[in-house]
Amino acid sequence: MALISAFPMLSECLSSSFQDGVFLKTKPTTHRSKRALLAREPKLVENTKNALFIKGRKTSGMVVNCMKDLYDIKKPHGKILNRQNDILPFENITPVEEFSRKHDASMFMFASHNKKRPHNLILGRMYDSHILDMVEFGIERYRGLKEFKTQKVSLGIKPCLLFAGELFEHNHEYRRIKNLLVDMFQREKIQAVRLQGLEHALLFTAAEDQIYLRSYRIQLKKSGSRIPRTELEEIGPSIDFKVRRTKISSDDLFKLACKRPKELKVKKVKNISKDTFGTQHGRIHIPKQNIKRLQTRKMKGLKKTVLEKEEQRKQRSVDAKTDIQT
Questions:
Q1: How far apart are CA 155 and CA 76, in angstroms?
Q2: What is d(CA 298, CA 293) in angstroms, rounded to the nearest whole number?
Q3: CB 141 within 8 A of CB 211
Q4: Taking the mean position of all CA atoms in its chain, how far away is CA 99?
Q5: Cis ω before 237 (30° cut-off from 0)
Q6: DSSP state of 248
Q7: How does residue 325 score in pLDDT terms, banded at 50, 70 and 90?
């Protein structure tokens, strides 16, 4: 209540009022607040998910630099909050939800450091301005972008996400962590891939209770054929995460969050299917054909004799009688 009363323009831009712990919709009074309200309305094709990078009350140089490197990868769909915040997301998530609602960000990353959980990094996402999934990582080893004296990738380039390890396939929590990492770094959805546009690759490897993050620049070199030779050059950051605490949503809530509008559902076309590689296959049904009646090319050498013509005429009459009886 004090936050909204201290910043009247904020409440106007959000086009809501706070009463008894509930945000109530009100009509916008200015063009600016109307544009802000329209930008926040649900869309058939949602915008790229924005992320908030938040500092806790106490942080370390390692966790702050690590968060800044991940922020550089997320740019320009991210915002870092420089002010420190006395927040414990696993104990009270309400302040983070308010930040998410204020900055229109569905993803967040929270950095903290203490004796019990040193170099702590929390990654989470929201659904309808409420927490959906949240995972706590501990940084075991870290090499920053500045330690790699190599050429970097372009700002805002869409990375190629690679996941290795059986845990990502067979463990329920790690499958959800994989989905969370995809949400964080996938950027906008695309329909086609241009070979020259593949510049950046992020590799996540799961082993036991750790996840290893490696970042590579993809180099396309001459190979003497149409297909170029591919080389990978590590550009950083290089991080070893240890999974600590997780807060995973229920299957029903996750299914509701992943629900797609009816307008975007692809209508099933009869007798048309697609394989794993996206190739379209069609099935054509044709009636049974009488091969004997097919008209072939006329040649003198294949000219029928009188007896053959007579037998053919009799066969046609027999076939006609059979059709009438059936």
A1: 8
A2: 14
A3: no
A4: 23
A5: yes
A6: P
A7: low
Q: For strands 51-55 and 78-84, give the pairing.
A: parallel
Q: Any idea which residue has 């008209």 for tokens?
A: 295
Measured CA to CA, the distance from residue 174 to residue 157 in angstroms comes to: 26
Question: How far is Cα 253 from Cα 233, in angstroms, rounded to an integer?
Answer: 40
**What tokens does 114 get?**
């203490």
Computed on alpha carbons and rounded to an integer, the radius of gyration of the chain in Å comes to 31
The one-character DSSP state at 228 is P
**Amino acid identity, position 149:** K
Contacts of 178 (CB under 8 A, 6+ apart): 163, 168, 204
Among the listed residues 67, 89, 65, the one whose alpha carbon sits nearest the alpha carbon of residue 78: 67
d(CA 15, CA 188): 27
Q: Read off the pLDDT of residues 141-198 as tens digits, 9 standing for 90 and up.
A: 999 999 999 888 888 888 999 999 999 999 999 999 999 999 999 888 887 888 888 8
Q: CB within 8 A of 323, min separation 6: which ones? A: none
